[in-house]
Structure formats: C-alpha cells, structure tokens
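I am writing to request your help with a piece of structural work I have in hand. I set the record out below, with my sincere thanks for your time.
___
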Amino acid sequence: MLEVDLGAIADNWRLLCARHPRGPVAGVVKADGYGLGARAVAPALHAAGCRHFFVAHLDEALAIRDLIPDALLAVLNGPIPGTEDEYAARGIVPVLGSLADIDAWTATARRAGRALPAILHVDTGMSRLGLDPSELAIVQGDHGRLAGTDLCFVMTHLVASEQRDSALNERQRARFAAACAGLPPAPRSFANSSGIFLGDGWGSDLARPGAALYGINPTPTEKNPMRLPVRLRSRVLAVRAVGKGDSVGYNATWTAPKPRRIATACIGYADGWHRSLSGRGAAIFDGTPVALVGRVSMDLTTFDVTGQPAIVPGSWLELIGPGQTPDDVAAAAGTNGYEVLTSLGARIERVYTGR
C-alpha cells in the first residue's frame, strides 16, 4: 500500500514558492506525478494555488487536462510531428526545442488563424533537447521565425543544480542570459527543484520543481527541507524458521549463518522494489530496521526478522516512510530517489490523505 499525503505535497509547493519570490512556481507532474498519481496530485496543487504544470508527453497532459482546465499545461518533450493540432485544440502548450518544432508550430498557428502559445527551450549544457547554438543563432538573427507563436516563456534545464559548487551552474546562468538577450522579450523559466536553492541568481519568472514536491531532498549535502508525503508498506505473507546453512531465494545468494526467522513480503521488482536491493536493502518494523536477505524476486522479497516475534503473517513492513526515505532506498539500490518513486508499479494500491 502506498499512502500519499496530498496536503504535504501542497505544503512543499508553498515552501518552494517562499524560496522563489521572483516569480510563480510550477508543478511538474510527469511520470504520473512521479509515481504517486497525477490525477490526484495535480488537483491538490491547483487547489493550493498552482497555475503552471509540466509533463513529459502529450498523453500525460491529456490525462489531466480536465482537472486543471484554467492552468498552463506544458509538455516538456515537445510535439511529435502530426500532434500539433491536438495541442492547439486542447489548449496544451508545447515546449519547442528545435527549428523543426518551431516551423511546425508556426504552420499550425497559420492554419488556426491565430497566435498559439508555446515555450521555447534553449540548450545551455544538457545536450538533450532544446535549441543548440547553431539553431539559437538562426532564431536570434530572425525573430520572424517565431511569427504566430505567443511566447509564454523561454526556458533551459540545469545540469548539476544539486551540486551547489559545480561550475556548470554559473556557466549555464551566463549562457541562458546571453541566449535570452538575443531573443524576443519573454518571461524566463530557469530553476528546477535544486536550482531554487542555489540562490537569487537562479530565480526567474517561473520555477519548475518536480522531485522536491514529492519529498526528495533538493539539497543532498544538507538536511532535507521538504516534507515526505509518501509511505510504502507491504504485507507479510509468511514467516518461517530456517536452520544454519539453509539458503533463501533464487541462486542461494544468502545462507543463514545460524538459525533465523525469515518473513516473505508481497512486493518485488514487478512493483518497482528494485532487484539491486538484493542483500542490501531493509524494511522498518516498529521503528527498527529488518535486513533484506536473498534476492528480490518479481513478486516477493524476504527479510530476516529474527528477534521480532511480533512480525507474523499479515503484519505490515514499512519500505518507504519516516524511517527510510526514498533517498535512503536509492542509496542502497545504487540509483536516485526519482527512480525509486517513479518505479512504483500499478499493482500497489494508492491511498490519498490530506485532501
């Protein structure tokens, strides 16, 4: 069971607003609200006052458009060729990251007979999406290329904002300022979750936090300023005694050094509980960690609950919560908190509180 405190997510958004006084703060709800359920998260943020939302794909935008009809809803990955008319019809804002995107969007505006809103993405160091230097120079030299585009924002994406002392942050700030200086005047969107905590120089007309809304630490070398809105628990299906030398799980990767008590919980990598946690992870019971032993399998995970007689079939083990955050799980799994949350599968029941 995944318990999601929508009130905590709204509180995190308000905290980020307080940290970003230069302009409003959007809600990034891509990947189904970072695995927590975009159709629950988006209305909660909207009720708190959020009026700018970002997703990655058009389908993600279509899935929540009816819940936030008056908000700016933008698609970071931009329009796949042939989808432009649907963007225009549903009032969804594309993020234009290439000359081809720009040309297709201005052609859509001509067909519609009206200017259409869009966000222009400039690459300042990520080298994924966004106008590269040669494309940027073309647009800077010919603003008419954007004719028919109602330019809501010019944006870029920070590469290493969680590393406060990284020289990349200042380099991107300078590149973004130079890029915008040669473009038509438009509001700017700069900081992501960690960027909001870099200081005033990284503020802009619109911040775009995602992970911090969901309790992932935007300042990894410091205490987490965000509330944790998630609690993941799994039921124990069986508890059995194993003797010294008995193995547990696939490929016998763990062998009992002495008689132990093993609990099998109904969660596995098909639910997003990473296989890389095998022999490394833990669960929490009554405030105490119990070690994960053996391999995480598709549907089941085993824990050494010796010394915990209260753990019986039907007991709940906490996998994410106050005693073990997504960042803690990520450290054990060799990944990041983003992947921990966005991996949580559809088989896990989601229960919403704090509405």
